Amino acid sequence: MRKHLINMSEFSKIKTKLLAEQIEEEIYNYIIKSNLSIGDKLPNEFELAEKFGVGRSTIREAVKLLESDGILEVRRGSGTYVINKMPKDIDPLGLSAIEDKMALAMDLADLRILLEPGIAEMAAQKATEDDIEKLYELCKIIEEKIEKDENYIEDDINFHTYVAKSSKNMVVEQLIPIIDTAVMMFVNVTHKQLTEETILTHRAVVDAISERDTIGAKTAMMMHMTYNRNLIKKLMKKEKERKI
Question: Which DSSP letter does residue 71 get?
Answer without folding.
Answer: S
